Amino acid sequence: MGLREQSYLILLALSQGPLHGYGVIKTVRELSEERVRLGAGTLYGALDRLSGDGLVVVVKEEVVSGRHRRYYDLTGHGRQVLAEETARLARLAATAQRRLSLQPGMGM
C-alpha cells in the first residue's frame, strides 16, 4: 500500500532539507501545482503520524516573533520510503501510459 498523497507530498517537500510548517505548506502547494492546500491542522496531524512512523524528525525548534517554530526533516528511513514510493508511482504511470497508448484513437 502506498502513501497518502498528502503524506507523499510532505515527504517530497522535506527531501531538499529541513522546513518549518509554513515552509512545508508552501512547498506542497507548489509541488502539487496549487491543487493540494494543507491547513495547519491537517499538516501537523500528518507530521505527527509521519514522525510516529519514523519517517520525519524535528531537527530544530526556535521562537520567531513570539511564535514557536519547529523544523522537520526526513529520517534515513523516510528518505528510503519516499524513494520506494516514487519508484512505485513511476511504474504505475508507465503502465498507465502503455495502456492508454493501446486504446484505439488514443495513440500518443
Automatic annotation (TrEMBL):
InterPro entries: Metal_resp_DNA-bind_regulator, Tscrpt_reg_PadR_N, WH-like_DNA-bd_sf, WH_DNA-bd_sf. It holds the Pfam family PadR. Residues 10-84 form the Transcription regulator PadR N-terminal domain. SUPFAM superfamilies: Winged helix' DNA-binding domain. This is PadR family transcriptional regulator. PANTHER family: PADR-FAMILY TRANSCRIPTIONAL REGULATOR (PTHR33169:SF13).
